[in-house]
Amino acid sequence: MEKVKSEWFDWIKALLIAFGLFFIIRTFFFAPIVVDGPSMMPTLHNGDQMIVNKFVYQIQEPDRFDIVVFHASDRKDFIKRIIGLPGEHVAVENDQLYINGEQVKESFLRERKEKMPSYQTLTGDFQLENLPGGHETIPENHVLVLGDNRNNSTDSRILGVVSMDQIVGKTSLIYWPLDRIQIIHD
């Protein structure tokens, strides 16, 4: 009888440890997210399931073109691409991205731009100072984010720059559906 109690206690202890580890990993390190909507097409599709790395920005600074998840409101997280970093001026003119006056290629948009009629633009012209907040450069601990589907994205052009405190983490791994499993590169 004592041996049976001991075995049950061992199983319960093992399950509690497993749940505790799962909770810690899910809360502080990695979490799943489901892409909701077309704002990151064609890179990400509606319904793609991804893993968010929650701790990466604790050990490194964000890079241009990282795909991030951030709290857009208390109830809604958005997934967008970092375009501008702290201290930078961002502008788009004639469908070309300029960072501090220098043209920057967006290779992830190349295919989409090639398929568009010549009279149409993917990204309407804008300058950082004309966005909400009216900043001349992106403030410290903030980033400018845009969706890859520029004609159908609620991003920094509407929301303004995003505080690093709002960012949940970086994502680059699609794990579902099976035919879409991949690691997203710039």
TrEMBL record:
Catalytic site: 39, 80
CDD domains: S26_SPase_I
Segments traversing the membrane: 12-35
Keyword tags: Cell membrane, Hydrolase, Membrane, Protease, Transmembrane, Transmembrane helix
EC top class, as a word: hydrolase
Pfam family, any one: Peptidase_S26
Molecular function, one GO term: signal peptidase activity
Annotated Gene Ontology cellular component terms: plasma membrane
GO terms, biological process: signal peptide processing
Compartments it resides in: Cell membrane; Membrane
Catalytic activity: Cleavage of hydrophobic, N-terminal signal or leader sequences from secreted and periplasmic proteins
SUPFAM superfamilies, sorted: LexA/Signal peptidase
Cross-referenced InterPro entries: LexA/Signal_pep-like_sf, Pept_S26A_signal_pept_1, Pept_S26A_signal_pept_1_CS, Pept_S26A_signal_pept_1_Lys-AS, Peptidase_S26
Its EC number(s): 3.4.21.89
Membrane topology: Single-pass type II membrane protein
Positions of the Peptidase S26 domain: 9-176
NCBIfam families cross-referenced by the UniProt entry: sigpep_I_bact (TIGR02227)
Family membership noted in the UniProt record: Belongs to the peptidase S26 family.
Protein name as annotated: Signal peptidase I
Organism for this UniProt entry: Lentibacillus amyloliquefaciens
